[in-house]
Amino acid sequence: MIRSFFLKNFRYIIFIALVSCVGTVKNSADTCQIFEDNYFWYKAVKSSEKKWGAPVELQMAFIQRESDFDFRATPGWDKLFKIIPYKRKSSSYGYSQAVDKTWEQYQNETGNKYALRISFYDSIDFIGWYINKTNKLLRIPKNDYFRQYVAYHEGWGQYKNYTKSPDAIKFAKAVDRVAKKYKYQLGQCKQKLSTDKYIIF
Fold this sequence. Notes:
Elements: H1 2-8, H2 10-20, H3 31-37, H4 39-52, H5 56-66, E1 77-80, E2 84-88, H6 100-110, H7 120-138, H8 145-154, H9 166-194
Antiparallel strand pairs: 1-2
Helix pairs in contact: 3-4, 3-9, 4-7, 5-9, 8-9
């Protein structure tokens, strides 16, 4: 009977477990503080960096720009008659604000079919995957913060037209500034963060 209950409610149990482990961010401008408060996030981002070659500071700057570290982040509503909400502006969701189609591509290409956008670990792996794929498809260096984010915001197919998108340019400049600031901050606390704090890791 207990086994049957768990099988029937597996997805809900996993959801509750993930939500209960969600980190908190007091100051998204300070990546050292973010990792100090959410040490396992640092392990996740370092794992993604090792796997995909995506700089820690850039991955974190992406999330700061996209959701400000809020796993519940969703786009605004399109409205009828400028008043009545009737559908979301896009299917983007979670930490990475990945849209349905690109998230499904990530799941299929990596075999991570149970990945969830509300999971920081899955979201950061997705971002690492995306940065790596941008490097392969568009030949954009992984440490080119500005152009990497443009490709993330516009998509690989629309990247070549980004000069026609003022928002893409504005947001990419902001990501570039944040990534550089994060990189400097990490230089001050990297040694402390790299110390093994948990035996299970």
